[in-house]
Amino acid sequence: MNSTRLENIAPAKSIVINQKVYEKRRNGQDVTVLSLGEAYFSIPDFGFNVLDHNVGYHYSDSQGMPELRDRIEEYYKYNNNISVSKDNVIISAGSKALTLNYMLGILNSNDEVLLHEPAWLSYEDQAKLCDATVTYIPYKEDISSFEKYFTDKTKLIVINNPNNPSGLIYKHEELRRLIELANINGIYVLVDEAYSDFISDSFKSAAEWINEFDNLCVINSMSKNFGMSGWRIGYAIANDKIIKSLTVLNQHTITCAPTILQMYFSKYMKEIYDICKPQLRELIKKRKKVESLLHKYDIPYLEGSATFYFFVDISKSKYNGDDLSVILMDEHSIATVPGSAYGKTTGKFLRVSIGTESFDKIDNALKIISEYLKNE
Fold it and tell me: What CATH topology corresponds to 53-272?
């Protein structure tokens, strides 16, 4: 393949590391996996028998089946107390596809995309696939100062709220003000809310503003909050014009999200969420316990209270994140993701995920990491 678009596209570091995890496990090795971007929930098999397979075997609406969009409308009503019309919802094969399609729909060559560090690693490379440039806003900057990074070339700001990997939740009114300022300056805003339920209190979604701001698109999925990442069902909420454009892009990329899986969610979405919700609460309790371990072992990290990630500061170590990640994997079978994947000034960090391992294994891994922070 010789497309110039691929020349500067790097492999996704988290996925590369997880491939090493799979290889080690196939060889019978025990790995402490602090690299996976998901949490494991216990979800029963509700069964496919009651679904009409004659429908499920075939194509369905490119915007997403109306029945599932109805369920998402209801979800926002009972979970966020927000009125969202199903006409403003589109379903796709995971939220990652919608992130890329949204960028394809608004970016032209050499347009600028602003990302606040630490930023989920695929945002940068998806922007590059659209021939756009990326500018990182340093992680120490508060959202109230983002406006000073606006330039004549800025076309898009991406906000991950809650943030992967820090767990930061942006202040609701400050986020609204940013969207308003961006709108005045002709800049689009993508708010990725994939971790919206991994919080201790109720979450205030930016979806409440989609009819107020023409520059706003909110993306979410079933992958994280519903613990079903392998099913690749994601959705976006936006105004009519944006939804129409995303539907056209769906038509030319995936045709439609998997019909039978949309039918399953349409039938059981409320039941699945009711089962996941207490497990989400338990995971937040686990986060607080792990936070206590970080204090116990004197491991600094970026401020945050949500998700199942910690962005660990290893600046006291003689290693950078890439080197220490390799050492931890090769010498201790501990999988982490280096901070260099999440920005330009985040090389002295590690992303630690607590979603799939026991508390005891996490404790042991953090103890080992803390020893490397003592090396001068």
Answer: Aspartate Aminotransferase; domain 2 (3.40.640)
